[in-house]
């Protein structure tokens, strides 16, 4: 007796006073569905074989067959049926005898998760009718032949996305007969940017091909004066990536019933992409030491990261902003949400969201690193996802900012967005989610403030144009760059810009007015700073130019400070100090050169070869201070990639990667990575060292499977040199 009680206890759901069934978070878990559901007592002699029986179900799930072709899912490296919601797809059912509509009754059932419920959209029974209604669940017979019927099935344009289990149920007088659990008939349903009723509908075919179907992209980095680009493999169609992306929603504990809503999916994904507070996908590291992990600059794409996380369930080390954004883009495109990767140059990381970046100067006009807490990132990458915003007033749909890089908490977790780009442009930062933070990233002013001995703050200089001065993304259909700054802000100094700022302040963005501080700048002298194009390992020169527009002679005591910085603008070490007195003649310009020697910077150089120069000059006659700061990136040599022989689908070929060490030192612990989305899974090779001026050559044999234009992407990583990339477009011929 006691034994039977305990087993029946185990099968009961865990008791919970608040809800009848436990939360339904997992797309992977299943319930047991009975093959025979009896209506009462079965008479003797009842034989299920006397009734209509399902012999086979054919899903038309091959890449070249109708479903994957019409639903733009033929590129997914996945044997199961993948369709997009709100659009009809076809299946064929083979019965044990010809189907007779007058006497036979059957229906389809799509189930998801362990506790399927009709009102939650996780149990969907579909009766066969005479016509399909757009964007609503339904099925109709389009062909009958012998024992087979072919059905056209329409899914709802708002249904939840993920992996459904399919059953066919047949009604008999004594109960329901169901097909056995068969994973071969599992059906993935994704968002549909081709369907007008879907929240992610995008009306331009070229944009859909770019923002949903392109599996390679470009990351723009460097700085505003020296934009650099590199390719990134999104790989959203590669094997197991779709399952890994669905697992992320399980990990984020997003209820299955909420998974039809792109706003909810983006919000939870922006938290689970980073490992802060939820053991998400990528652990960030900005300190230049990457023990027990991969340096952020070494990754060539998202696939390795997502698959490693999917198998280990542990955060993958390490990432920085473009890695978080690259993986987030893969996630969005994989599920069918149009997405693009954005770079904001001179991005404000404003610790108290007051639209004011404070750089404190000491008595002599040098930057006080103790007091200065805000930092300007050379660049920062985030994503935009395309969707309607029924939760906001009309006009705020379209591109939404989502950011997976952990910077600040939002509702208690490290996440950001979705925030409407339109709302940010017009200053309507009251609309959810996190619009004030993004507004500050692109609109802050830099204040150079001197602390007097008695504690008063004197504002010496205000730079209103540097932050967010260039916002870019990859062009549609090509590798070029598109300037989208005007989608985020009106032109500096225009009436509309002022109005947007006043609106943002009205909605609670903190902005200290200049009246609160004493500020009388020196207006009759300009100071400018230029740096020569500099190659890693070489000397280069920088030039400071003064223009005295007045009729007075001035002398300027000038301080020059060269710092090696992380790309986040945080200094590692000051490697050069120089001060001089400049005589400024009336109505004339004077220039002063300073030489930066490679021996001064090589020892401490960080991976993005990034410098930050501060110049402050005190006009002795007036006591006023001029200040200018500039980021300079060194030119890092590229990898060379070439192919050997002809490239034909299904035929072995080889690719050669070469690199010549340009430094006056040996490179230690060299690792090369090579990948070609849709052509070549990532291969890594370790090389011990490359002596100075010597060339490393690596040949890789592989067999491309599909014809078409593809891209090879390679990266080199070593102890002293990182951020070395190479890429090559290749045309694979048909056999």
TrEMBL record:
InterPro entries recorded: Ig-like_fold (IPR013783), Ig_E-set (IPR014756), Papain-like_cys_pep_sf (IPR038765), Transglutaminase (IPR050779), Transglutaminase-like (IPR002931), Transglutaminase-like_sf (IPR036985), Transglutaminase_animal (IPR023608), Transglutaminase_AS (IPR013808)
Span of the signal peptide: none
Residues involved in Ca(2+) binding: 443, 445, 492, 497
Gene3D superfamilies: Immunoglobulins, Transglutaminase-like
Subcellular location: Cytoplasm; Secreted
Active-site positions on this chain: 321, 380, 403
Predominant localisation class: cytoplasm
Alphabetized UniProt keyword annotations: Acetylation, Acyltransferase, Blood coagulation, Calcium, Cytoplasm, Hemostasis, Metal-binding, Secreted, Transferase, Zymogen
Catalytic activity of the protein: L-glutaminyl-[protein] + L-lysyl-[protein] = [protein]-L-lysyl-N(6)-5-L-glutamyl-[protein] + NH4(+)
Protein family (similarity comment): Belongs to the transglutaminase superfamily. Transglutaminase family.
Function text: Factor XIII is activated by thrombin and calcium ion to a transglutaminase that catalyzes the formation of gamma-glutamyl-epsilon-lysine cross-links between fibrin chains, thus stabilizing the fibrin clot. Also cross-link alpha-2-plasmin inhibitor, or fibronectin, to the alpha chains of fibrin.
Oligomeric and partner information: Tetramer of two A chains (F13A1) and two B (F13B) chains.
Protein name: Coagulation factor XIII A chain
Naturally occurring in which organism (per UniProt): Loxia leucoptera (White-winged crossbill)
